[in-house]
Write a structure and sequence with these properties.
The structure is a single chain. With about 180 residues, the protein is an all-alpha fold. It has one domain. α2 packs across α3, α3 packs antiparallel against α4 and α4 packs antiparallel against α6. The longest helix is centred in the middle third of the chain and has 35 residues. Keywords: Membrane, Transmembrane, Transmembrane helix. InterPro entries: DUF6803.
């Protein structure tokens, strides 16, 4: 099966929990509670606490994930020309960008800029960051689920090596193997 590095990362249960379930639950909790707070007539300390906690924990989780992705995925793939093409880079890059947005949301949630920004502007920034996260993370998911062979550079990057080493592959392109060299 042909898949991006984004999807390869999610193929084990532990990775699925760490890289998808945990951060998405925290981000969705932040988004939902932010909307409820925004449209509520009266404030709820419990809801505000859950919102702030999910934002800060989401930021911490994404900080660790982004550092890991940079160290273990982006740098090695870039050094070894291991990317499967532009779709692969978009999937991983947008996933990391979503993490950066959540980290920014965590910083805003810690109220570092509270007096400078004011409550209303800070709320607007929080909603904007959450909206940006939702869009960016969905781009990452869509690109991550795409077949990397849709990219015109894919064959050059991965299947060209299989053609040169297999005479049979030259006659039947469907026998190409998905070579992973990380």
């Amino acid at each position: 099966m042909y898949m991006t590095h984004y999807m390869e990362l999610l193929t084990t249960t532990s990775n699925l929990l760490i890289f998808m379930a945990l951060p998405v639950v925290l981000a969705e909790t932040a988004a939902i509670t932010e909307l409820v707070i925004l449209f509520s007539k009266k404030s709820s300390k419990t809801l505000s606490f859950v919102n702030k906690l999910s934002c800060i924990l989401g930021a911490a989780v994404f900080l660790l994930i982004d550092l890991y992705i940079f160290r273990e995925v982006i740098i090695p793939l870039s050094e070894n020309s291991g990317w499967y093409g532009l779709i692969d880079k978009i999937a991983v890059g947008f996933y990391v960008l979503g993490g950066i947005i959540m980290i920014a949301l965590g910083v805003v949630s810690l109220n570092f800029f509270g007096e400078f920004l004011g409550r209303r502007l800070q709320g607007g920034i929080r909603v904007g960051l959450l909206a940006a996260f939702l869009v960016i993370s969905h781009v990452a998911m869509i690109a991550g689920m795409a077949d990397p062979r849709l990219d015109s550079d894919y064959r050059i990057l991965t299947e060209e090596n299989a053609v040169s080493t297999s005479v049979m592959s030259e006659h039947n392109p469907s026998t190409f193997s998905h070579v992973h060299s990380h």
